[in-house]
């Protein structure tokens, strides 16, 4: 299974009055990790969008384990948890500099036509994505 680890610089504006990263900002970090994962597969959301296709989030799951604070290095590890040719689930693990798990999460996605918002098959519309996703899953297919 392919995993990508992306460093995150915790910006002051991402923290709340308690000095910890505000809970909703982890969703932004998930997107940073997901984009890095896709780019590591030599794929591009921009190219997908140029073909009139987008990939909305259909479900989010987040478990908060430990706070991350301003100035503390953070890392987001991203991998494919599930892929069936139509739906894709990415998994995320945010850790601090000591490797302690701060947040676990998953996001579910489909691809849709930008005009109709009708779901499309990744397998049919983007066979290169399909093959690379299967490869990234490795033995977990």
Automatic annotation (TrEMBL):
In which domain of life is the source organism classified? Bacteria
Q: What keywords sit in the KW lines?
A: Hydrolase
Q: Does the keyword Transport apply?
A: no
Q: Which Gene3D superfamilies match?
A: Hotdog Thioesterase (3.10.129.10)
UniProt keyword annotation of Cytoplasm present: no
Q: Which PANTHER family match?
A: 4-HYDROXYBENZOYL-COA THIOESTERASE FAMILY MEMBER, NOVEL THIOESTERASE SUPERFAMILY DOMAIN AND SAPOSIN A-TYPE DOMAIN CONTAINING PROTEIN (0610012H03RIK)
Q: Which family does it belong to?
A: Belongs to the 4-hydroxybenzoyl-CoA thioesterase family.
Under what name is this protein listed? YbgC/FadM family acyl-CoA thioesterase
Source organism of this protein record: Amphibacillus indicireducens
* Lineage, opening ranks: Bacteria, Bacillati, Bacillota, Bacilli, Bacillales
């Amino acid at each position: 299974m392919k995993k990508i680890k992306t460093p995150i610089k915790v910006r002051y504006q991402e923290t709340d009055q308690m000095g910890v990263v505000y809970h909703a900002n982890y969703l932004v970090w998930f997107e940073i990790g997901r984009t890095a994962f896709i780019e590591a597969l030599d794929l591009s959301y921009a190219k997908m969008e140029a073909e009139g296709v987008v990939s909305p989030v259909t479900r989010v799951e987040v478990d908060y384990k430990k706070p991350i604070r301003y100035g503390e290095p953070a890392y987001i590890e991203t991998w494919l948890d599930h892929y069936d040719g139509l739906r894709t689930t990415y998994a995320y693990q945010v850790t601090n500099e000591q490797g302690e798990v701060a947040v676990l999460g998953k996001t579910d996605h489909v691809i849709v036509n930008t005009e109709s918002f009708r779901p499309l098959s990744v397998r049919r519309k983007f066979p290169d994505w399909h093959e690379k996703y299967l490869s990234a899953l490795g033995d977990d297919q």
